[in-house]
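Quick review question:
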């Protein structure tokens, strides 16, 4: 899995406000034996503070991949995406939109804001586990990610 990333695990930032979805993602990482570190923040404001290493996130590791929900409290996921992709220090980090929305306008808007990938969360547990494994395989094994 790690040939593309020289065998080094990467930091993944999950931006998700739904505790059930956070647990599900963590479980999918465990079941799929994904050894990359998953960090979690629960709203858009925390996500931006984490990425900018502000306040309690001053020592946060720079993620190599961001899993971003769209419908977040405090700062909407679309705004988080826009700020990430307009920041020269953050724009190179791949952002995978992982949301329950299947609305065409959300898909179009996300790609217009330079999302790297848009995935509608499956409601079926087995399918969700499969999607997380495929995300991990594609982003951490197939593609070359920039070194920090």
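Suggested answer, residue by residue:
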């Amino acid at each position: 899995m790690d040939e593309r990333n020289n065998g080094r695990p990467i930091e993944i930032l999950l931006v998700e406000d739904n505790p059930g979805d956070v647990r599900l993602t963590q479980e999918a990482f465990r079941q799929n034996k994904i050894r990359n570190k998953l960090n979690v923040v629960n709203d858009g404001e925390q996500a931006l503070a984490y990425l900018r290493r502000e306040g309690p996130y001053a020592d946060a590791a720079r993620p190599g991949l961001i899993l971003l929900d769209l419908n977040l409290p405090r700062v909407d996921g679309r705004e988080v995406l826009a700020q990430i992709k307009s920041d020269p220090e953050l724009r190179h980090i791949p952002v995978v939109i992982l949301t329950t929305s299947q609305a065409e306008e959300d898909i179009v808007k996300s790609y217009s804001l330079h999302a790297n990938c848009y995935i509608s969360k499956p409601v079926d547990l087995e399918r969700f586990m499969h999607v997380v494994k495929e995300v991990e395989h594609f982003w951490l094994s197939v593609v070359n990610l920039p070194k920090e």
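Why it works: The chain has a mean pLDDT of 90. Helices lie at 19-31, 44-51, 77-86, 104-112, 125-142.
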